[in-house]
């Protein structure tokens, strides 16, 4: 690249940086907080309802997780969760429903390639690394904890 091209490139980068819209950070944080909180409120509603039916707390936790993953997958499948995510941003990623969305979205996107090479192969493209590193980290922490409990 010669000097003239470098100057043009620098000028373009400067102009594009000036024209780039500034993110509405406060608004985005508020939306994430409200919608993420509403998702958690829905989970708490199911928890309170199941507890009022006399189901033990150990089972309620499992049932609520299943219900929330199902709702996240259902809303992703009918196209609502992605629209919600455009408004809430990280507010929809953090709860367990975000995990369901991360599994279902690639599966829907690659459905036309078939169940084996489409859905099955692409289903964990987003959530797969999270699972691998999450499980790997928990194993390492467990080993460190075990060693520390023996020594301490």
Radius of gyration: 22 Å
Instruction: Give the biggest beta sheet.
Output: none
Q: What characteristic shape results from the CA principal axes?
A: extended
Helical residues, percent: over 70%
Determine the strand fraction and express it as a percent band: under 5%
Mean pLDDT score: 88
The total count of helices amounts to: 7
Number of strands: 0
Which blocks of ≥5 consecutive residues have pLDDT under 50?
none
Q: Give me the strand/helix succession.
A: HHHHHHH
| Structural class category | mainly alpha
**Termini gap:** 62 Å
Characteristic key phrases:
membrane; transmembrane; mainly alpha; 80% helix; Spore_V_AC; transmembrane helix; Stage V sporulation protein AC
Describe the protein in words:
It is a single chain. The chain is mainly α and 152 residues long. It has a domain at 26-109. It contains seven helices and no strands. It has helices at 3-19, 25-52, 57-77, 80-88, 96-109, 115-122, 127-151. Helix 3 (57-77) runs parallel beside helix 5 and helix 5 (96-109) runs antiparallel to helix 6. The longest helix is centred in the N-terminal third of the chain and has 28 residues, at 25-52. The protein starts with a helix and ends with a helix. The model has no long low-confidence stretch (mean pLDDT 88).
């Amino acid at each position: 690249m010669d000097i003239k091209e470098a100057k043009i490139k620098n000028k373009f980068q400067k102009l594009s940086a000036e024209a780039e819209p500034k993110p509405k950070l406060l608004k985005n944080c508020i939306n994430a907080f409200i919608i993420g909180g509403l998702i958690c409120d829905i989970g708490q509603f199911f928890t309170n309802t199941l507890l009022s039916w006399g189901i033990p707390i150990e089972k309620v936790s499992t049932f609520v997780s299943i219900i929330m993953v199902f709702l996240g997958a259902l809303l992703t499948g009918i196209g609502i969760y992605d629209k919600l995510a455009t408004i809430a941003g990280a507010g929809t990623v953090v709860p367990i429903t975000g995990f369901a969305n991360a599994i279902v979205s690639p599966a829907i996107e690659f459905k036309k390639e078939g169940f084996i090479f489409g859905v099955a192969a692409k289903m964990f493209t987003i959530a797969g690394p999270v699972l691998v590193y999450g499980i790997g980290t928990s194993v390492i922490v467990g080993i460190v904890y075990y060693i520390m409990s023996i020594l301490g």
